[in-house]
Each structure stands twice: as structure tokens, then as C-alpha cells.
Amino acid sequence: MSRSLALIVDDEPDLCELLALTLARMDVDSRSVHDLAAARRELQRGRFDLCLTDMRLPDGDGLDLVDWMQQHTPATPVAVITAHGNVEAAVRALKAGAFDFVSKPLDIAGLRKLVTQAVRLADRGGPAAEARAPQLLGRSAAIEQLRVMIARVARSQAPVHIAGESGTGKELAARLIHAGGSRAANPFIAVNCGAIPAELMESELFGHRKGSFTGAVADKPGLVQAAEGGTLFLDEVADLPLPMQVKLLRLIQEKAVRAVGDQRETPVDVRILSATHRDLGELVAEGRFREDLFYRLNVIELRVPALREHLDDVPELVEAILARLARRAGVPVPRLAPEALQLLRTYRYPGNVRELENILERAMTLCAGEQIEAGDIQLRPAMGGAGDADEDVDDDASGGLGDQLEDVEREAIMKALEQTRFNKTAAAKVLGITFRALRYRIKKLGIE
Known about the structure:
Elements: E1 4-9, H1 13-25, E2 28-33, H2 36-45, E3 50-54, E4 56-57, E5 60-61, H3 62-72, E6 78-82, H4 87-96, E7 100-103, H5 108-120, H6 126-132, H7 141-154, E8 160-163, H8 170-179, E9 188-192, H9 201-206, E10 207-208, E11 220-221, H10 223-226, E12 231-235, H11 242-254, E13 256-257, E14 266-267, E15 271-276, H12 280-285, H13 291-297, E16 300-303, H14 314-329, E17 335-336, H15 338-346, H16 352-366, E18 371-372, H17 395-419, H18 424-431, H19 435-445
Parallel strand pairs: 1-2, 1-3, 3-6, 6-7, 8-15, 8-16, 9-12, 12-15, 17-18
Antiparallel strand pairs: 4-5, 10-11, 13-14
């Protein structure tokens, strides 16, 4: 197996020698050059598995090399060496496409981790690993653009903030970033920040020591430590209380955590991905989210499109969702009548892909045979929300649609009642709703 090869770009001979020795101990060969012009020549001449460049060079800036490499050698990860504490330079490098950064004076342990991650990008497990990875379905322009962006940010260690409405698949995007990067073989830990009570947040994330509070009967590692070497995904990060935002900022800056009741900080190696359906910029302006944390999380922003922006992908999504639901239920995959598919292709999906899944699960329950008919598709009436802001709505058409939806709902309820010999409790189970909800709908729709 051939050894990896790194390019060192620095005008300080002592630093070049230190880097070369560190790489050699890791079985990585290296070549050293001292300016941008020589670096470009070497990169054009042969293939490198990693490039380490200083920020300040005699004939330019390390960011100039990062920009050049994004155009000419995008497959080679490049890490930038910055002055200690120069956070702005590090963030600029990551935004420009750098794989990662390392600060002077060099932390050899941190440098070794960086090199290991970079070299792993050359071999992420091949086709077998790709087969195990989650899949992003769809061939629309919006999804293709998302796919390209995911592949790009997967090759970096930069924090990524995933924006998008509820139900669009932000966690799937995070898992794809993890699966496509150098950390794929290590843990992916997803944390819903809105689901953890504020008083337990610090202990859950950072762990605690025995006796640190009532009920702490043993040492317990936190979710951050569980993600060691891998990816920590903070879903609904906007729900983090302000005190926890301070601690998260320190985790990102210092790459270390302190468990509740501990006097020492423990180094951790995790990549931070975050997501929320809310506008973090607005929350910063309102004083409800720290501006410094916002800029550290939002080094790269990835937007997941709403389903109404790629309705052409609905047939492929429907096919995959029905296959999964049928496999889970142990039944044959139902067919979809053309009229039912047309209903699904023209709906606006305020709840996005998650709502499509719920609609299909309900339809599978309601359909009498092995084919889902239009009458089995239950859609919410148009609400005139954010998803419809770009459309002119005709009042008469809106009213007609409401009548059609009530007819569909009435037919589904009647079918369920007939199927259960008018046992309302059993019919409610068939429909997947509560008995009280069924009774309300029967009254509302005037079903005798």
C-alpha cells in the first residue's frame, strides 16, 4: 500500500522541518515549498493527499492558495496554519473551502488528528460504505444542488448550520455529511436541543461526576464525549438556553468539555453540525441567541429546500416511502392510482416530506385493497400560510377545494365505518385518529 503524500507550504524552515518529522512518524511523506508560486507548481505536477499552508507567505496569502485549490485541485484537502487566537482568519479559511485549520504554536496531538482525518478522505470505504449510507432521493434541480453542496461540505471539518422548514429532512442532510466525510466510521450523535429539560441540559451534553448533584450515583459521560472522533448534530439549536450557548461556544473554541462536578477539562474531537427551522439571524437581533456562537456555528450554511420547491420528486419519494412502510408492516407494497398520484403531485405540503409520509401511512390504512385510490388520500385544506405566499388564491377555487376535501374525508370515514360494521372505536383505529376526533368529524360532516 503506497504511503500518503503531503505538501507543506511555509517560509519558516524550522516549522517545515517540524511538520515533516511529525508527518514521517505517521507514515506520511512530504515535500516542502516556501511560497505560493512553488506550491501551485507542485500541485499541478502531481497528486497530494493533503496540503498544509501557512497564512502568511512571501508572495501572498494562504487564503489565495485555498481559493486556487478549490478551482484546480478540489480533491486535495488543504489545512491553514493560523496565528494563535486569530479566530477570524480561521473562519475565513473554512468559508473559503479549507478542510480545517491549526494554530501556532503547533499542538502536535491536534495536528496528528487533523492529518489522520484528511488522509481518510482518500479512502472512505468504497462502494460498500456508500451502500450503507443514507440516500437523498430526487432528481430535481433543487435536490441536485443540495447533493453537490453536501458532497462539498462533507470534505471539510468546518461547522455547518442546516437551515430549512420542519419536516424537510435536515437530520438526513446531517447524516449524509457525516457519511461522506472522514469521520464516517465514527459515531454520529444527534441531540434534539428542544427535547432536553433546561436543568438537565449540561449534564446530558457534557456528563457529570459521581456526587455532583442529588441522584448522580456514578460518573456519566455526556453526549459530546459519546461523539468522540465523529459528528455531534445539534438539532433545534435555537432552543439552547443562553447559559448553554456560552458552554457550547467554549466547546467549539477550545475543543474541550468540563463535566458537571469536574475540575478539569477533557479534550474532545468532534465535528459540530447544527440545524433549526427558525431564523437564527432574527434571534440574534432579538438578543435570544449569542452573536458570537451564531458566527461559529454558521461558518457554512446549508439550506434544505421545502418539498413544494421540488414537487417533481414526489413520485420517487412516494415509491420509496410506500416500500418502507410496507416492509415495516410486512405487507405487499400497494399500488397508487393515477388520480391519487395527481393529488399528491399538486399539494403544497406545509409539513414537507414528513407530512407526505403521514399522508401515505394514513392512506395505506384506509385503502380497501392493494391500490390506494384518490379517496384514500387525506390532505389538509389550504391555510394560506408561508408556502402559499407566492401565489394568488382565487376565492371560489379555494372554496371548491374545501368542499372536495370534505367529500374525500366523508368517504374515508364512511368506508372505515362500513369496514368495522359501524363500530366507531374500531373505525377510529382504522383511520389512525382518536375516538373523540372521529366523533367530532362525524358531527362536523353531518354523517348520520
